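Bench notes, bay 3.
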Amino acid sequence: MPTNLYGPHDNFNLQTSHVLPALIRKFHEAKIKNEPTVTVWGTGTVYREFLHVQDMANACVELLASVNAKDIYNQGITHINIGTGKDLTITDLANLVAEIVQYSGETIYDESKPNGAYKKLLDVTRLHKFGWHEKISLREGIKLTYQWFLENYK
């Protein structure tokens, strides 16, 4: 079971995207248009966990190569969560994206829009027992994703 994934080829459509690619696009467009504010849905106080897609792919390959499914099923294990085991608030995420995009305006929160669940953090204890940890930090992953966005998004 993966956590929230992001990275190259993400969906940056503001009507259908998830929070991270939406923030990248919103802050980028506000920077280009020299807009004084960016509006983020909700209160900004909910927590989310994110994993770069390359780390997800690496985790799948490593688990397929090193884990015997029969052994884990015999232990009653039905799935392995794949994530970082670390979360942050949407406000902290918005601040990080604004910094990476180099947007200097103000972020405002539209509390009339939904927050979603308060916290979505996976228990990655099993994954860590297999020795796997993410290699791409959130900061680095957002930088890579923003660079891809700049080079590819129209």
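Next record in the batch:
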Amino acid sequence: MVATPIGNLEDISLRAVNTLALVDMIAAEDTRITARLLEHHRVHGNLKAVHKHNEQRSADWIVEMLAQGKSVALVTDAGTPAISDPGAMVVARVRASGFRVVPIPGPNAAITALSAAGIADSPFLFAGFLPPKSAARRKALAALRELPCTLVFYEAPHRIVECVEDIAGVLGAERKIVIARELTKLFEQTHHCALADAAAWLRADPDRQRGEFVLMVPDSASPRKAAETDWERVLAVLLDELPLAHAVKLTCRLTGAKRKAAYERALQLAHRLKPRHS
């Protein structure tokens, strides 16, 4: 599994170049794109197409080659294989057949974008591409809305405006977004703004809608999160009036507290509240 440049053809490791030069076959998502990369680095390699439409069939011949003692490198058009790109099915089949899979690290658009976004050190969730249809996209976003982390998405140019509109509509227009486009290329651009302003910024210049996009939405404080910090007080009040299990259930529903933590704390509080006998 060989990671390849996401734009600038110089962004490839010596190990990756040497591997591509030495393997018996290079399984490429688009042989034309990979051929340009090989030519740039003066590497001669045997190319065969492996993409999302033939990945299952391709796994068969890759396993056959490995069984014959041959070596195969799998690459996608850009970045790390199997990360929002073909490759995972081949890896699973190769491993199931008893052969070794070796990852050769390199460029990844999400990590590249995050490194230049200036978002404070915090957890992030890589969600990849959202569904192409608005209704399904909004449903997917709703499931992510309350997560306490930075959300990272990929998006294609022809859907970028409607995508950020849906993100603003579901996650909240007051939240921030970092839009990164054309990373490592000539017209690389990173823009910070409120989600409320993102669609207008993209529409203001047609060139801003070109290229592949990484969208990063940092976590933001919300009324629910404020309530979460005070769930123990809520739990204590409810325990004075309700059975333990009911008090825990209501506390979790009202504040977003984790059930396990609330239940353990409830047991401690209930023990302290037991009447003493003389």
